[in-house]
Specification:
Elements (H helix, E strand, L loop, with lengths): L1 E6 L8 H7 L4 H13 L3 E6 L7 E5 L5 E5 L7 E9 L4 H10 L8 E4 L6
Antiparallel strand pairs: 1-5, 1-6, 2-5, 3-4
Length: about 120
């Protein structure tokens, strides 16, 4: 799984165009990468996630009490912006695809982790 970590931006100053420029890539870069992953036959699944302001966190305490809060629990400099699940033969191939991902540019990162099989 390629987990795309994007830098958190000040929502008061961000427009779609500014966000693209700030993270070092354009919509066209994302379309090209998406096409390349699918054309290579390695795409399994993937989605972009809605803005962080739409997040809700759920925690269950020791007594079984549920606590629901808006947004993430901790302040962070990066947020999960989306993911790709790809089927490649080894870690080196996954790292190559992660390096090609537009999300790895401009202060973002792509975290590579295998999906656990039980």
């Amino acid at each position: 799984m390629l987990m795309i970590q994007a830098a958190v931006m000040d929502e008061a100053t961000v427009t779609d165009e500014a966000a693209g420029a700030a993270d070092g890539c354009t919509v066209e870069d994302w379309i090209a990468y998406d096409t390349a992953v699918k054309d290579a036959g390695i795409w399994v699944d993937g989605h972009s996630l809605a803005d962080l302001t739409t997040a809700t966190a759920v925690r269950v305490g020791p007594g079984g009490e549920r606590t629901v809060t808006d947004g993430p629990f901790a302040e962070t400099r990066e947020v999960l912006g989306g993911y790709y699940v790809i089927d490649v033969p080894d870690l080196d191939a996954a790292l190559d695809w992660a390096a090609r991902c537009p999300g790895a540019r401009g202060g973002g990162s792509v975290v590579v982790r295998p999906v656990a099989e039980f």
